[in-house]
Amino acid sequence: MTAQNPPLDLNADLGEGYGEGASGGDEAMLEVVTTANIACGGHAGDARTMRAACRAAAAHGTAITAHVSYADVAGFGRRFVDLSPEELTDLMVVQAGALQAMARAEGAQVRGVKPHGALYNALAHHEAQASAVVRALMELGGLPLVAAPGAVVVRTAQEAGLEVVLEGFADRAYLPDATLTPRSTPGAVLTDPGQVLAQALSIATEGGARTADGTWVQLPVRSLCLHGDTPGALALARTVRAGLEEAGVQLAAAL
After folding, report:
1. What is the structure's pLDDT at 227?
2. Structure pTM?
3. Are 79 and 72 in contact (CB under 8 A)?
4. Fewer Cβ in 10 A, N or C end of the chain?
5. Of 98, 99, 116, 20, nearest to 63 (Cα)?
6. Cα-based distances in Å from 77 to 67, 72, 199
7. How confident is the model at residue 3, as a pLDDT?
8. Contact criterion met (CB below 8 Å) for 165 and 209
9. For the chain, which ranges sit under pLDDT 50?
């Protein structure tokens, strides 16, 4: 990484459990990442897990974003929900607003919003839902957005004057159009440590990654996601962090 490149943020989705002791693996992951995307009741999480995750993130000095989603616990937020713009705005305000309150109670703050799963994917192309989410961010005090390069919501947020952090994925395969390979496709989730580290290094140092067919996709991102529910997630995260540091990549929260 050259001197003029900004530091790279490592983020992970945490607090994706329920009740006491549900997020035991979060503590270890917080020693690796620089930003915690905390589930706030849509696809996972409840009052107890939100508070516990905020407390742990604050203790580690880790930045917090609200990991908002459709209200789809049964499908873990990975099924599209055709909400009206008004319904989606309200849902985002309720989820992120609750996390803001919990973070404040633990002496921390929510620095941004990262949509989850099917909502994240929909915001790449769904104009109405993108506008609804941006409206919620404005109502929440102008919270920054974490999103994929080229997503419709990126332009919508920037036009509204919001800060946007572009994000890439170390453990997900890409398609030639720079979108993520659907999870229903074999090989969509990368689990081999060498492969995950190679993609992380490629994104961090070369600004892009190769698809399965060899196509090069540009990924001008400031944050790199390590999914907390990927098999062997903690070991993968530690491998990625060590490899990035060895390569001279500076790591720091983007928000």
Report:
1. 81
2. 0.93
3. yes
4. N
5. 99
6. 11, 5, 26
7. 47
8. no
9. 1-3, 22
